[in-house]
């Protein structure tokens, strides 16, 4: 593939808002840094740092702007500090940086994704590369659910010894390394580090390890207030490499210098009992993350689908846990059964995991998208019919449950990609209403969302012919919201009645949405009038229509949305300051006439818009003129979706030079409301071939 680039890398400051960008196509190689952009396509990618030199030479102005997490850490109850028994998940998936390295998403038939966020406190992206920086897609998904995202700093074996001898040689050296780790975490928007030193340390190096940890922890807390630094159980205070599988006098010095310890996996119940009474653990039992290897390698308790055996022991002794490599459900089973096996794995552990309450102001919205799917949907219709994977698209995840109801009844919820309202998946609620019961009720969200005086509610679902589906909201009085993190507060159930289609609020809502009603989907709207109340639970009630026999059912939930009714009148924001830079031209396969090569545009778009107001942006392009002036301007054509104020146009075919095209940024609000076209952002780009004279010069 032949690559052509413009003659310089421009800055947004070089582009006045009322002017077109002009490109003279030349034959220079791409100047984009190879570590941050795919060599063939220029797609932005996430990457690690593989050496100490790379770490020490790291500069913020050379960081990838695409890999900066854009979702702030959401609030939840209990907070990490008050969580009674914390759960860390260490992602160890086939070396890391697989399809998830493509920041704008990838076409994958059945990817690995995590969506049981309600159960965990910390997500660790793990690989065996020295400085493992979590891909932004993982940090964004974790933050959306109030979960910390931490990277990994690892040294191993003989090569690791040499690295440690250098960066732990003295105070200046370890502070320099720690400062870079802090800067990287702060720059990319993640929340700390797992420190994993799995090699022998010299007397000098081990003497400086504790101070290194303390300095790193203090600096992380100062720059990223919610951050944590966790030590992996490996090296001892005398410098030898000897996994202890517990906290004891041999490794306590490292535990005392940071926020916690992640123990190795070969512990026994006796070691848990001993550790619970160990003086060095007193007052910090929940800072001890007892390791569980889901692959069950070595002499371990539980593992695989029997991980519950380990977790039960850990919880009974009052410790937190670090679950290592839960991707076993993906790696060691049929990929087509991934959802079923992941739901089974976490369902088996659920009795020993604390359900966290998502806490936010209105609006509260979820279409249950898990960040991947067989097609991309918008309002019940296919927008792009191909498999895709992008964790940036993952929405607030519900509780996935499987439980018995009475003697014969049952209830189960799970994600499904066969049909969706928005994104790639919907929520299936299946079960059996047993004889003797009129209904069953599935709690799908556990929340703390203060309601407005008038809260507008939208509920989208596909009903089942033999049952009635209704939305049940459980609320509490705001004065009772004195959450210390663990208490369950009695709530009151509210069954809202649907508003008529000619209700003024409904008409305004539909006008804001544009296309709304779709065959097969029910889309009722409601109004809650409540003062001083907070939403605690969202439930789906499924009731029998008639008779008393067992009634099997299966219904699909597309979206639940609650918003302040006053926000229906809010004026739209406008996209500002669209600019184009880092342009790379390519030629592709022969065009339709069989004589000329396709001309492909690659470019970075940037703009300003309040990201907390948007669900995503749609990026469009259209031909304005050229090369034949007799051909009229073309229609807007969708290029893709993005989830921040930054997008890389990749391999977009455009008309042959000379030409003039327009790139357009359309915001889609969190509620899915249409933003009028005058509020979209746009920038034109003209381009021409290099003349023979210019090439000679």
From TrEMBL:
Q: Which UniProt keywords apply?
A: Cytoplasm, Glycosidase, Hydrolase
Instruction: Name the Gene3D superfamilies on file.
Output: Galactose-binding domain-like (2.60.120.260), Glycosidases (3.20.20.80)
Q: Where in the cell is it found?
A: Cytoplasm, Cytosol
Q: Which family does it belong to?
A: Belongs to the glycosyl hydrolase 85 family.
The record's annotation in InterPro entries points to: ENGase (IPR032979), ENGase_C (IPR057882), TIM_ENGase (IPR005201)
A cellular-component GO term for this protein: cytosol
Q: What does this protein do?
A: Endoglycosidase that releases N-glycans from glycoproteins by cleaving the beta-1,4-glycosidic bond in the N,N'-diacetylchitobiose core. Involved in the processing of free oligosaccharides in the cytosol.
- Which top EC class is named for this enzyme in its record? hydrolase
Q: Where does this protein come from, organism-wise?
A: Triplophysa rosa
**Domain of life (superkingdom):** Eukaryota
This entry's Enzyme Commission designation comes to: 3.2.1.96
Q: Name one GO molecular function term.
A: mannosyl-glycoprotein endo-beta-N-acetylglucosaminidase activity
All copies of domain Cytosolic endo-beta-N-acetylglucosaminidase TIM barrel, residue ranges: 97-375
UniProt protein name: Cytosolic endo-beta-N-acetylglucosaminidase
Name the lineage: Eukaryota, Metazoa, Chordata, Craniata, Vertebrata
* CDD domains xrefs: GH85_ENGase
Q: Where is the Cytosolic endo-beta-N-acetylglucosaminidase C-terminal domain?
A: 568-688
Reaction catalysed by this enzyme = an N(4)-(oligosaccharide-(1->3)-[oligosaccharide-(1->6)]-beta-D-Man-(1->4)-beta-D-GlcNAc-(1->4)-alpha-D-GlcNAc)-L-asparaginyl-[protein] + H2O = an oligosaccharide-(1->3)-[oligosaccharide-(1->6)]-beta-D-Man-(1->4)-D-GlcNAc + N(4)-(N-acetyl-beta-D-glucosaminyl)-L-asparaginyl-[protein]
